[in-house]
Amino acid sequence: MASASVICLAVLVSAATCELLTADQLAKAVPGHLELDPEFRKLHPSIPGPYEHVDPFIVGGVESTPHSRQYQVGIYTPVTTAGISFCGGTLINARTVVTAAHCVDLRVGNLSIFMGAHNMPPGGDLNIVARFAGDVVIHEGWNRSILLHDIALVRFEVAVPLSASIIPILLPRDASNDYLGNTTLVSGWGRASDSINTISPVLREVISWVISNYACRMAYLGIVQDSHICISGAHGRGTCNGDSGGPLVVNGVLIGVVSFGSAFGCEVGWPSAMARITSYLDWIRQNQAPA
Ligand SMILES: *[C@@H]1O[C@H](CO)[C@@H](O)[C@H](O)[C@H]1NC(C)=O
Ligand SMILES: *[C@@H]1O[C@H](CO)[C@@H](O)[C@H](O)[C@H]1NC(C)=O
Ligand SMILES: *[C@@H]1O[C@H](CO)[C@@H](O)[C@H](O)[C@H]1NC(C)=O
Fold it and tell me: Which domains does the chain have, with CATH numbers?
């Protein structure tokens, strides 16, 4: 890990950021994630358990080709004077990042957002652009206790310089598309397995597919609403702590924001749940910063 001063010179944009976020703090960031309370399952014993046939050799994906997911961003959120949590996010235009509400609702200071990165914490890569941002819009319906409307926008005063490593993603054109069965790509610096407690040093990604909300409700009874979208967790694929807020993508189009998984672990074969982008197209249009 580079020293704090190298990080500031090579990566961070403002002197204020250097005082607030040292390399050490970045390295110790806690992966953000929402999980269903295990108590919840005790109350609903009839809900099917985790799949039995989990392939132990697939721990949920592979390292991304560096700089191939140019819309992916990493977000550090100061949550108390002592702690920083880490989440993913997605660039949707040169001035707007979409992420999960639960990644930013407990913030006690501006967010540090890194774009064009492959390694996290960010090193001295010249592709990286960092922004220190406080203009956050959380969905007015966000409800932590029922994990509903878990979506937020972060807006930059000044547009991010787009490059071969930093390109916004497309939003869906057809709000009625449910993407059922479509092949999905989800990426993030989240924990690569249940046995690792820090974020991944490199961006990783996993291919899965959209399952029906009916099937997802079987796993998360009483939680999954129409404004959620879920992917299969078969073979232990899926999202883990630190992936929250990041992109669920079908054919180059953003269709979900990583929201929550099972408290039983990330590799147990349960679906991963997201905020369904097509439910929020109007809200995004109304609240994003103009590019
Ligand atoms: C924090 O964010 C706000 C709003 O985006 C901005 O005006 C302010 O300058 C930021 N603070 C620092 C120290 O950069
Ligand atoms: C969150 O949802 C619960 C359950 O529907 C409700 O009782 C509570 O009032 C909601 N909280 C907010 C802040 O809307
Ligand atoms: C999604 O799946 C449908 C039904 O199989 C298919 O017609 C459509 O082309 C797929 N879309 C994408 C973007 O893969």
Answer: 72-168+281-287 (2.40.10.10)
Specify whether 118 is catalytic: no
Tokens of 127: 């592709």
Contact call for residues 1 and 27 (beta carbons, < 8 A): yes
Residue 37 appears among annotated catalytic residues? no
pLDDT in tens, 67-103: 999 999 999 988 876 678 888 999 999 999 999 998 8
The one catalytic residue in 64, 244, 259, 262 is 244
Q: Pocket of ligand 2, candidates 139, 143, 223: which has the most ligand atoms within 8 Å of its Cβ, to mutate?
A: 143
Measured in angstroms, how far is the CA atom of residue 258 from the centroid of ligand 1? 26
pLDDT tens digit string along 167-212? 999 999 999 999 999 999 999 887 666 566 677 888 988 888 999 9
For ligand 1, atom 1, name the residue with the nearest CA: 134
Please work out, in degrees rounded to the nearest 5, the angle formed at the alpha carbon of residue 203 by the alpha carbons of 178 and 154. Answer: 65
53 is a catalytic site residue: no
Query: Helix, strand, coil: what percent of the chain each, to 5?
Result: 15, 30, 55
Q: What is the pTM assigned to this prediction?
A: 0.83
